[in-house]
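Predict structure. Chain length: 377.
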Amino acid sequence: TQAEIFALLTGNPAAMEALSSLRHSFVTLCLDLESRPSSPAAAAALAHSGNFSNRWYSSALQIVVFGNSKACLIFNFNACLAGNVQMRAASEIWKRSVGAAGEAGSDADGEVFASREIVIPVKRELLDKVQKDVTSVFHDDPATFEIPEFGTPFFLSRGVSPVPAFVAALQLALFRITGRAPRIGQLLTMSRYRCMDLTTAFVTTPEMVNFVHSMANSSGDKQQLRDLLRAAVDSHIAACREARQCFPLFRLHSMMADRAQGIRRFYLKSIIRGTNLLLRMLKLDRGPADILISHPQVYDEVHVVGRPGVRVPYLKCFGLHYQIRERSIVLTWMPAMDWQISNAEMTKEVVRALQDIAQLANPETPLDGTKGDLSLE
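Prediction complete.
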């Protein structure tokens, strides 16, 4: 649908001029003054799926302001800003806006900025088609949940790193619900490289699967399960460290092709596509993850992270943003198109798994020596 619309706009000089103005806008301010969300979770859902006709997703940053002064920020990952950078930016914008609010009305000159309407002509039948396409990814199931008590101090006081423990609980919850161990990819920051946003560590390790199977089947005594949990935690940390140490091969290939010119560029891209296809046919590539999870840096000013209210078409199960805060864990679920398990049921099973893992942890004998959350994304 998008390709069809842009093909028609290309032949319209006025439409192309309007599009050019939008494309070169770094920040887009979206005023949804008729909406008054009651909570940060409701605001986040409205920002992403409540009024998509008042959004411009090609912008590096969108600021959505509601009628009751609540606001949300929508970042574009194509701007090569990692999740941790986005979180810090949101925190800084909030802090500075609070300071500026006290100065409201002090502008003596009363300057009024010029504005003009941007008109992009699109046929009604195409707009209806867009509406149908977008509606197919809407998801009205509540997506954001807060799990009290399981904050960072809770895990550290029991001698286990928060992030690996949470991932083990998530994997256990999934196995109890589905009877299998879907492949989980943990998004990591690659800040040591310029313009490198994220890489993926596959954290459904053999050690993690062994632990999950033993817990689900109640096989082994408490010490044996504890040893399996220790191995699962260690394997998670090792997988994340290994992923961070490598420059992703697909990134290197893409950079080589993008720097090439003319026929050489076409040749390199053809070679890359052919190589990737051959690896998939021979089952030598790692393949995609069934689930993608993200844990960006925590800032008190940023209450909800993720895209609540939508389904993701590129995953088999779901995407999950989780924030392990001081006194709680905040989850935002983004189910795949065919995922049928409710977000509330998933959250309930995660809580149950966290409680089971907490019973294994022993404050006197830490499961690992790692502190903090490895600055995951």
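Summary: Residues 365-377 have pLDDT under 50 and may be disordered.
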